[in-house]
Each structure stands twice: as C-alpha cells, then as structure tokens.
C-alpha cells in the first residue's frame, strides 16, 4: 500500500513538508535522525543554583585577585631565597594586572548573577583561563589545583548547558 496522496494529507502534514526546508524544524527535515529537543517552556531546573554558584565563585575569585594585586602593588618588592643567592622581584606591573583582572571578574560575576548573556560568555572564558593557570601551580599544590580545576569545570558546565535557565528564572517564566 502506498502513502496518502497529497489531497489525503492533513493540513498539519502539508504545512510541515510544504515550507521552505530552512524554515522547517530540524526534526521535520530528517525524521529518522536522533535530535535532542530542549524544552524551554517548563520551570527552571536545580542547575539554576549551580549558575548562581558560578557567579559567586567568579566574584570571590575577583576579590582574591584584587587583594592579591593590591598587595603586590603596595609591597612591590619580593625577596626569594634560592640555592646560590637571593632574587629580588618588582611586582608593581604584575600587581596592577591582577587588580584590574580582579575588578573585571567581580563585574562578570555580578553579571552572571543577573543572567546577562555577555557575563555568561566571559564567565566561561575566565573559568577556562583559571583552569589553565592552575596547570602552572599543579606541581607545587596538586591537591588545591585539582580542586580548582574541578570547580572550574562545574562552572563551565553550569553556564554553558543551563545558562538560559537562569535568564528564564529571572524573567519569571
């Protein structure tokens, strides 16, 4: 038996197949393919709390970097005793870079808490950079570095996968 003729198809079937292929739903284009459809009409999931966690962590990281940077600016000479001598470092530029980075991180964290799209993007970028930076201290503080990398991965996952839920929750949808 053959399928229904074009006169026997329902109006819904005709609408789904007669539209321009670009305008159709991806599931309509390839009915046999496996697609994940994200339902954006339901209430936000518990991951909204993890996005809040991400925002708070970025703010905390920013405060740490701000204090770290200002400390380096105010006490800009560091003596390090090494085998064979003493090293003297001027930390002024390094301190200003960290202070400015800390201020930026605080602003991004506040934006994440408000569900701002630009902050969600920059939050992911900062978490990636922070995770990569932990590779520098990994040989010296392996336990701490691995914990921070794990938290960075959670922050990235929460923002990338569930960032839209926070925006919906804040809109009251």
Automatic annotation (TrEMBL):
Coiled coil: none annotated. It comes from the Bacteria. The keyword Membrane applies. Residues 10-38 have a biased composition (Basic and acidic residues). The chain crosses the membrane at residues 47-74, 94-113, 118-137, 143-161. Keywords: Membrane, Transmembrane, Transmembrane helix. Residues 1-42 are annotated as: Disordered. Residues 50-163 form the DUF7144 domain. This is DUF7144 domain-containing protein.
């Amino acid at each position: 038996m053959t399928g229904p003729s074009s006169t026997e198809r329902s109006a819904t079937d005709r609408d789904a197949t007669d539209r321009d292929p670009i305008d159709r739903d991806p599931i309509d284009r390839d009915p046999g393919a496996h697609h994940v459809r994200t339902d954006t009409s339901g209430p936000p999931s518990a991951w909204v709390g993890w996005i809040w966690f991400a925002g708070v962590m970025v703010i905390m990281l920013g405060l740490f970097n701000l204090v770290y940077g200002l400390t380096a600016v105010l006490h800009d000479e560091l003596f390090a005793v090494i085998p064979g001598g003493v090293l003297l470092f001027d930390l002024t530029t390094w301190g200003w870079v960290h202070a400015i980075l800390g201020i930026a991180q605080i602003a991004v964290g506040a934006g994440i808490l408000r569900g701002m799209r630009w902050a969600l993007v920059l939050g992911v970028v900062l978490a990636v950079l922070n995770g990569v930076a932990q590779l520098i201290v990994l040989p010296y503080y392996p336990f701490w570095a691995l914990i921070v990398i794990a938290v960075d991965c959670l922050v990235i996952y929460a923002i990338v996968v569930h960032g839209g839920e926070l925006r919906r929750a804040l809109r009251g949808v």
